[in-house]
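Why does residue order matter? Because the sequence determines the fold. Keep that principle in mind as you read this record.
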Amino acid sequence: MTSEADAMQQLPHDRERPVDAVLRLEGENLQLREAVRSHALVDQAIGVVLAVGQLTPEQGWEVLRNISQKTNIKLRHVAELIVDWARTGELPAEIRSQLERELGVGGPDGM
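Structure:
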């Protein structure tokens, strides 16, 4: 008579145990949820940039990407800061100055 653990060890390597499959799928589900939230946040930030800079969506994406690269701040975090700026009026100086450069505005009466 074999135990359940022995039986599971005898399964072919290409078959997952049901518990392992559930855990793997739960992990994938969490990753997908985070990706959807992140994508929505980036889309919202693009919308803010479009409204401020009167740009196309493609140009808005490029602005966000350039800010992220030039400030060495993850794109998702840049997007979060810009969405918060639309709500609060507050934007870190580093992001503000790079956004002004990208949009070709600035000076005392800039954004």
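The chain has five helices and no strands.
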